[in-house]
Amino acid sequence: MRTGRLEAFSDGVLAIVITIMVLELKAPEDTTFQSLLSVAPVFISYVLSFIYIGIYWNNHHHLFQISHKVNGSVLWANLHLLFWLSLIPFTTSWLGENEHYYEALPVATYGFVLLMSAVAYFILERTLIKNHDKDYLLARLIIYKVKDYVSTALYIIAIPLAFVYTWLAIVCYAIVALIWLMPDKKMETLIDEVEV
Amino acid sequence: MRTGRLEAFSDGVLAIVITIMVLELKAPEDTTFQSLLSVAPVFISYVLSFIYIGIYWNNHHHLFQISHKVNGSVLWANLHLLFWLSLIPFTTSWLGENEHYYEALPVATYGFVLLMSAVAYFILERTLIKNHDKDYLLARLIIYKVKDYVSTALYIIAIPLAFVYTWLAIVCYAIVALIWLMPDKKMETLIDEVEV
Amino acid sequence: MRTGRLEAFSDGVLAIVITIMVLELKAPEDTTFQSLLSVAPVFISYVLSFIYIGIYWNNHHHLFQISHKVNGSVLWANLHLLFWLSLIPFTTSWLGENEHYYEALPVATYGFVLLMSAVAYFILERTLIKNHDKDYLLARLIIYKVKDYVSTALYIIAIPLAFVYTWLAIVCYAIVALIWLMPDKKMETLIDEVEV
Amino acid sequence: MRTGRLEAFSDGVLAIVITIMVLELKAPEDTTFQSLLSVAPVFISYVLSFIYIGIYWNNHHHLFQISHKVNGSVLWANLHLLFWLSLIPFTTSWLGENEHYYEALPVATYGFVLLMSAVAYFILERTLIKNHDKDYLLARLIIYKVKDYVSTALYIIAIPLAFVYTWLAIVCYAIVALIWLMPDKKMETLIDEVEV
User: Number of Cβ pairs closer than 8 Å across A and B?
Assistant: First the structure.
């Protein structure tokens, strides 16, 4: 089976997930600067989650640029990834629950959903590799994936850390986001090679 | 008429239906473990419905891989299917109404919407067969469809059962989901044949 | 310019409009048959609006099957149509405001939005004809459009009628929907001709 | 990398942003003309924002008609644009907070988000130019972009103006919208040239 509809469906889900979070940005009840400031914690979590969904969309986009076919297992591995990503608006909204500071449990839950998303992405990659032959570019790329190990380690540290130094856990999530925001020239070069 | 836009529109609707349910996962009002647990019944129904929409999307995807053309009747048969599927977020949300256990009527209603979705899918298949010629792969596949009969039987048993042993009805729905989660190798092989 | 993205964007907006209305189908607060019945007026308006959006999607789909190019004016004529259609969830929700019967003003407003949608669709057709050359199929089709005149007449009758016999106005809207649900064989045959 | 999925994802996000605002158009609690009128300020802001998103979608559409490839930087420049546009429903909703008149801070915030969207669009253009070679049409077009400078100037004037003559700021935003509604024949002609 071709990859077209899987990509279109994933684009649809991710586009909704990324914009659904704005619904949580309720217009302040008053029109003063103070009321605008009260939206700040929700806003900051929105920015972080927007970047995370952006990263996943970018990686998903790269992944299917080099994949040529899907089967039933790939469809479900992809739906599994979308499932965890679809929980991000929920955890984002809980993160901004308290106007004054971030609380332990929502921060840990947020990290757990990020960790499970990373696991789901990993499963998707493995399922794609199984479904393709030896020449499949992803199999070659996978060894370089230091970023994946660092991110996973940071999530695993951040989840218990949330109960001790909540803000440090948030910093961990932000570091992971920054790591992925840096452009991956090697990946891009390889994709361009394949397309030519 | 070609199938492209019908697929794109269905992808859009299903992507929204699958993510709209998360809006019902309201962030708990408190930040304790207990408040997180109170979201559990809604969460479990969300998981079940996510899997159901996933199954329908997968089957829809397979169906249009082997279909080459649509006409006005197919467009409406497809909209009819999307109509019933679009009611799933509503019944899912009602299912999680009571925090402590599932209640009879919401469980029966949930089953009714699943049953009508199955009927709508069946009508869509028949409409597609009518619109294609003798060589149409779907006509060949249709005889093997044991899964369809088992699912329909389970829905019809589960709806009245919901008023006696509510949990058993939920178990029926879960069994149907499991049946469909198992990969359909025969279907995939046939699709690959057509594409080559 | 090609029509691809205009179609994709319109599919997206219509998919959202058609599913957004379900958000108004709030899960009943109780789990009795009576509480399920209380959702009935909202549900009936949902069904009617679902059919209307379905009709517009079908017609839009047909329209762009026979159109090959767009320009800035077509993009805006299309956005103008989407604007009026995007108001349907709002008027649908107002229509179901009162649990016991439909009220005059919401029914008239609903008709007004339908009328404006019809006008916007008409403008879109004219803009497309202007943008294509003599051979353009739509120019040939336009003369047969009895359906359009009947619908417009029914809307114009229904709007004032809503203030006298509210239910009769609803009947008018239902008749228009039925007229458009009947398959348009002539249109389909012409489209198939063009594609071959 | 090809532009297909970037366009599809952007279409998805913009389609959601443009329709999400309707959710703020809550059905009036009463069914009188007066209650309908009370929705007017929210409705007017909805119309203005609908036009703005429409303008951005049109420009985005034109932009990628003449662009052939994307890289990681373009993907992020595009996500950055989508981020600011995704805030428009929030500021639109705040704009209609007070039923009787527009208040200073929401009007200024609205202008700020429009200004940042314009900046993000500018960055996206520059990133695209960097990623293409000398022949790239956009590089030629960019010099004519008087509209951009006028819009930016009007935003910068309007933001402080909102605190003095609030309505004049709204007028500025409306003027910018009108400027962009006028068809850009030169752009269209150039695109048609490229396609042929």
Answer: 90
Residues of chain D found within 8 Å of residue C5, distances taken between Cβ atoms: 7, 11, 61, 64
Residue type at position B73: S
Nearest CA in chain D to C78: D54
Flag if C65 and B93 touch (Cβ within 8 Å).
no
Q: Which residues contact D167 (CB under 8 A, 6 or more apart)?
A: D102
* Mean pLDDT, rounded, for A1-14: 86
Q: Is residue D143 predicted with pLDDT exceeding 60?
A: no
Decide: D173 and D114 in contact? Cβ < 8 Å: yes
3-state secondary structure of C167: helix
Q: What is the pLDDT of residue D54?
A: 93
Neighbours of D30 (CB within 10 A): 14
Segment B117-156, tens digit of pLDDT: 999 999 998 898 888 776 666 666 665 578 888 899 999 9
Q: Using the structure block, give the residue that is written with the tokens 């109780």.
A: C30
CB contact under 8 A, B19 and A20: yes
Strand (E) or helix (H) holding A106: helix A104-131
Q: What is the pLDDT of residue D142?
A: 62
B22 touches chain A (CB under 8 A): yes
The model's pLDDT over D39-91, given as tens digits with 9 standing for 90+, comes to: 887 888 889 999 999 999 988 988 888 887 888 889 999 999 999 999 999 88
What is residue D66's three-state secondary structure?
coil
Torsion sign (Cα): D84, D88, D93, D96 = positive
- Estimate the crossing angle of helix C4-20 against helix C40-65, to 10 degrees: 170
Q: Is some CB atom of chain C closer than 8 A to the CB atom of D54? A: yes
How far is D55 from B142, CA to CA, in rounded Å? 48
What pLDDT is recorded for position C153? 92
Is residue D16 less than 8 Å (CB to CB) from chain A? yes
With an 8 Å Cβ cutoff, are D13 and A19 in contact? yes
Contacts of residue B79, Cβ cutoff 8 Å, sequence gap at least 6: C50, C54, C57, C58
CA angle (B45, B46, B48) in 5-degree steps: 65
First to last CA, chain B: 23
Chains that touch B (3 or more CB pairs under 8 A): A, C
Query: In the prediction, which pLDDT does A189 show?
Result: 73
CB contact under 8 A, D103 and A28: no
Q: What is the pLDDT of residue A19?
A: 87
The answer to whether the beta carbons of residues C16 and D89 sit under 8 Å apart is no
What is the pLDDT averaged over residues B166-177?
92
**Cβ contact C148:C93 at 8 Å:** no
Contact B31 A106 (CB under 8 A): yes
pLDDT score for B2: 74
Residue B80 pLDDT class (50, 70, 90 cuts): very high
Contacts of A93-96 with CB under 8 Å at 24 or more apart are: A93/A21, A93/A24, A93/A42, A93/A45, A93/B26, A93/B27, A94/B27, A94/B28, A94/B31, A95/A41, A95/A45, A96/A24, A96/A41, A96/A42, A96/A43, A96/A44, A96/A45, A96/A46
- Amino acid in position D152: T
Asked whether the ipTM of the predicted complex exceeds the cut of 0.90, the reply is no
Mean pLDDT score of chain C = 84
pLDDT beyond 90 at C110: yes
D185–chain A nearest CA distance, Å:
32
> For A107-111, A148-152, D152-156, which range has the lowest pLDDT when averaged over its residues?
A148-152
More confident residue, D135 or C54: C54
| N-to-C CA span, chain D | 23
